[in-house]
Specification:
Layout (H helix, E strand, L loop, with lengths): L14 H4 L68 E3 L13 H9 L5 E3 L10 H13 L1 E3 L4 E3 L16 H9 L6 E12 L5 E12 L12 E11 L7 E7 L5 E7 L4 E4 L31 E14 L3 H4 L13 E2 L2 E2 L5 E14 L9 E7 L6 E6 L5 E12 L4 E11 L5 E6 L3 E3 L22
Parallel strand pairs: 2-14
Antiparallel strand pairs: 1-2, 3-4, 5-6, 5-19, 5-20, 6-7, 7-8, 8-9, 9-10, 11-14, 12-13, 14-15, 15-16, 16-17, 17-18, 18-19
């Protein structure tokens, strides 16, 4: 099935003829006039690359496939079921493709003989509503960082689009990642956390329903004061049943506020540990809280540098993994094998990515000395990160495995996948039963004393 064009973006199609060899150099200040022409409204190069392996952007995927069931709107069948791999890359031939592989991907190929990637046709499926395009262009001149880069000033209208479609530095690029569009909000049905040991034993540690909201796009907030929020309501195992969590991130300061409710104590407590490099216990310690979706929370522990753009193989359009055929080779637990996800279940494509490097700030503490993030230019969210310890050794490899919400439309809703390269354990957190669009929660639902009430209702 071909991507369906959104009318506002149709003008990008002929650009490929003019900019087939478009430079990957970082856009410079003063390029705002390019937004909506040679650059998309959110700053991606509209044209394809010189050899045609990356196509021009023509509006993304906005039409569900014929087998999409409106009665089950959270489950999205693969719109490209007949696509076949173009190339398989493993340790035996990775040198041939090393200019398009991240260091983490190559290290995994070296360390784990069972790991390989299958590269498919590149499909630029990210799509957005009209308001996103309009506000992203406006944000290029009305958004600015405050509080030493830890916050955003929204008093002049900054909001409802990518904060910095043409980032001038690393911290602006990080804010564009933080303000990416995923619809104003969705529910995750039966979100599940698990970790896999080196011997292949899979340990499922929690299950429940979750809410993720991008408050930067809340239509009820013309001048947003939060940019991201989430809430979990656990139903398994027994020791976690009826526990709940609510977290939100402040725009002005960048601070994260979290609350936990435990029925065993009948108390709601402030949760300051839901941030930074605190290990996520239920994922076997393989993931820190600020590794959520590549990076989450306050940005103050690292000095961020925008290295530039490059072409890279990244996980993309992973409907087969996220919405597997119940009787297929990627159903349920079949997706998980020792050391990494089942390579037959993960689709990789060639895309342009923003390379953002975080170096630990002097005087700050974190388990990572350096973080290299490779963020898709179209979605500002899909991609990977390589995280290094204080000895310069690769520690965690983070892969975002997602698939666009073609019924919204919106770019990919992603699962968390973090590989601990030292212990051999990896952790995964994602949906077992789909992503369901919903409206952004009003502030009343984040009142701490209301954590005792169920707010996520999914049939």
């Amino acid at each position: 099935m071909k991507e369906t064009c959104m009318n506002p973006m149709m003008r990008y199609a002929p650009i490929a003829l003019l900019l087939g060899s478009a430079s990957l150099a970082q856009a410079q200040p003063g390029d705002v006039k390019q937004l909506g022409s040679t650059l998309t409204s959110w700053g991606a190069i509209a044209a394809g690359n010189a050899d045609g392996t990356i196509p021009a952007y023509t509006g993304g995927l906005t039409t569900p496939p014929a087998n999409y069931n409106k009665a089950n709107p959270g489950w999205r069948p693969d719109p490209f079921p007949n696509d076949k791999p173009l190339v398989k890359i493993d340790a035996s031939n990775m040198e041939k493709y090393k200019d398009k592989l991240s260091p983490g991907t190559m290290e995994m190929m070296k360390k784990y003989p069972s790991f390989y990637i299958e590269v498919f046709q590149t499909r630029r499926t990210a799509a957005f509503p009209k308001s996103f395009h309009e506000n992203s262009i406006k944000n290029a001149t009305r958004c600015k960082t405050i509080n030493e880069g830890n916050g955003l000033d929204t008093s002049t209208g900054c909001g409802h689009g990518i904060a910095f479609p043409i980032p001038k530095n690393g911290i602006e690029a990080m804010w564009s990642h933080a303000t990416r569009y995923r619809t104003p909000a969705y529910y995750i049905k039966n979100v599940t956390g698990l970790f896999v040991k080196p011997n292949g034993e899979m340990v499922k540690t929690y299950a429940g329903h979750a809410y993720r909201g991008w408050d930067f796009y809340d239509p009820a907030q013309p001048n947003p004061d939060r940019y991201y929020s989430y809430s979990y309501e656990y139903n398994a195992p027994t020791r976690l049943a009826s526990n709940s969590t609510a977290v939100f991130d402040d725009l002005k300061t960048g601070d994260r506020t979290g609350y936990d409710y435990s029925p065993a104590t009948r108390r709601v407590r402030l949760s300051p540990d839901s941030s930074g490099d605190t290990p996520v216990g239920p994922l076997g310690g393989a993931m820190t809280f600020d590794e959520d979706q590549l990076f989450a929370g306050k940005k103050d522990r690292f000095d961020w540098k925008l290295v530039g753009k490059q072409e890279m193989y990244i996980p993309y359009n992973n409907y087969r993994f996220q919405y597997p055929d119940a009787n297929g080779e990627c159903a349920g637990d079949k997706r998980f094998v020792p050391f990494h996800l089942n390579p037959k279940c993960v689709r990789w494509e060639l895309h342009r990515v923003w390379h953002i490097r975080g170096t630990l700030t002097e005087g700050k503490r974190h388990i990572f000395k350096q973080r290299d993030m490779y963020v898709d230019e179209d979605s500002w969210g899909d991609g990977m990160s390589d995280n290094y310890d204080h000895n310069g050794k690769l520690f965690h490899v983070n892969q975002q495995i997602g698939a666009p919400l073609y019924d919204a439309p919106a770019p990919a809703a992603t699962d968390n996948m973090v590989i601990d390269m030292i212990s051999g354990v990896y952790g995964w957190s994602g949906s077992w039963d789909g992503f369901y669009l919903t409206e952004a929660w009003p502030r009343s639902k984040f009142a701490p004393d209301l954590l005792v009430n169920k707010k996520i209702v999914l049939k």
